[in-house]
Amino acid sequence: MNALEIAADVRAGELSAVAAVDDALEAIARRNEELNVFVHVDREGARARAAEIDERVARGEDPGPLAGVPVGLKDNLCQTGVPTTCGSRILAGWRPPYSATAVERLLGAGAIPVGKTNMDEFAMGSSTETSAYGPTRNPVAPDRVPGGSSGGSAAAVAAAMVPVALGSDTGGSIRQPAALCGLVGIKPTYGLVSRYGLVAFASSLDQIGPLARTVAEAATCLEVIAGHDPRDSTSLPEPAPDLRGHLDDGVAGRRVGLIRELVEGADPEVVAATRAAADALSAAGARVIELSIPELRLGLSAYYLIAPAEASSNLARYDGVRYGLRVDADDVTAMNVATRTAGFGAEVKRRIMLGTYALSAGYYDAYYGQALKVRTVMIEAFARAYEQVDTLLGATAPTEAFALGAKVADPMAMYLSDVFTIPTNLSGHAAISVPFGRGATGLPLGVQLLGPARSETRLVSAAAVLEAGREEA
Amino acid sequence: MSDLTRDEVAHVAHLARLRLSDEELDRFTGQLAQVLDHANDLRALDLSNVAPTAHPVDLGTVLRRDEVSAGLGRDAVLASAPAAEDGRFAVPRVLGDEP
């Protein structure tokens, strides 16, 4: 059942939240062993909360726009008392003493978190294979990856365990799994959703956002979690935008730029799907032109210096002192080393090493400093493009879902699966991935709509046009 | 190719408080060099007149009002610690011999 239908029925007293949650728990029980989607299921907490929602409805109260809707939370989002591991051994067993603002807002809107979804360790990966708790399988094709790093959240929605889930997107970690699982995924403008309670990977790039089957569900969820939060110093000062009110705006008169650099090197089916999306927008009255933004080609290299640099600093906190794993040793430094060596997996170690190197004496200016300048160059290039068009269009990922294990031994090949999504994180802009077309073996593909900061209303209306176009195609 | 050496990788591991096996040192040296090779595209650009962007949104320094508000509380925080003693985090000795 669609999230909006569940909420409408629960608010009207025609469906009990307990029944909605039990449906979700049953769906999880049916396929979780096969797909490894949830790393923790909060059965009792979810059922208790659902009973509370039903009591409130019985008393004549309105629990909110997501009343009784079961949701999945990526396992880097804190919920008080519920285990949060970030897919890492180093946080095994940790129960946060507070909830993320985004989680509090979901609860405040009547939603019911049913558990924590699997992810690449500390969100470092594009396939959900670097998790210490084993890989997640793609529900559409279980021999394939679901994408990553929010692969558990994508699989949870694609397997109809929950209608919506939250993920986080640092270089494409919401949009790429959404594309590979046939879902809608939104990477909001940096600062639109509070990062309070999101375990930090790369603080200047991380954003929380929704994954859902439809644009309307994702937009509704984003509206609930967005808006200023005094507990995040990078939170934008304004309240959440009205997205639901703009779903039917259409794209008539809109100027759209099909970006050459956001399809180049992609599979032919991906290129064809993106061109078909451009045609669908044209047919709906948009003026589509082809544009080149060559500076976007610098994104991947800049990202793989900036994100590891920030990660190496953020992950310094895992030292065996305040929370998580401790491996004992004779003195405190030996304890730090033993803990981190045992607690982090290979990909996390690789990125910590890369970041530490890029920030180290003698290399700082050449690598990290230069990458920050490239970030400026890319932001300026985007700004020039947005003088000509309102919205940009490209592919979300260069391929359909790839086979489990196919890229594990080759980090650079794995990194390339985020080549089209990374520029939006570097610029702090907004983007949405919408399912469109099919790959060579019939698996879903996604196309990406990009806009400047605070362009979510325009993006959801354009995405709704593609959603309708897909159904007609 | 990047001129990254195995000794440099070992030094970085020390800075990052990680212990790598010989096999990991070899593997990481090759893999990190590959990523740094990519980054050399950036090093070749002349960006001497470009200002760096450390953060995508320029909000200035945000300060909260200077008002007392509830924190998490010591017990809630220490409950997560691997070891605590007398209301504090407990760690192995930092300096000198054991008493």
Radius of gyration of chain B, rounded?
23 Å
CATH topology of the domain at 6-43 in chain B: Histone, subunit A
CATH hierarchy, class of the largest domain in chain A: Alpha Beta
Strand order of the largest sheet of chain B: 1-2
Give a count of the beta strands of chain A, DSSP E runs of length 2 or more. 11
How would you name the CATH homologous superfamily of the domain at 6-43 in chain B? Glu-tRNAGln amidotransferase C subunit, N-terminal domain
Derived structural class of chain B: mainly alpha
Give a structural overview.
- The complex is a heterodimer of chains A (473) and B (99).
- Chain A is an alpha/beta fold and 473 residues long.
- Chain A has helices at residues 3-11, 17-35, 43-58, 101-108, 151-158, 175-181, 215-225, 268-283, 299-314, 332-343, 346-359, 365-388, 411-415, 422-427, 456-472, and strands at residues 38-41, 70-74, 112-117, 164-169, 184-187, 207-212, 255-259, 287-291, 391-395, 430-438, 444-451.
- Chain B has 99 residues and is mainly alpha-helical.
- Chain B has a domain at 6-43: Orthogonal Bundle (Histone, subunit A), CATH 1.10.20.60.
- Chain B contains three helices and two strands.
- Chain B has helices spanning 6-15, 22-43, 74-78, and strands at residues 84-85, 88-89.
- Chain B has a two-stranded antiparallel sheet with strand order 1-2.
- In chain B, strand 1 (84-85) and strand 2 (88-89) form a beta hairpin.
- Chain B is flat.
- The N and C termini of chain B lie far apart (52 Å).
- The model of chain B has no long low-confidence stretch (mean pLDDT 89).
- The chains are: A alpha/beta (473), B mainly alpha (99).
- The interface between A and B is large, with 73 and 49 residues.
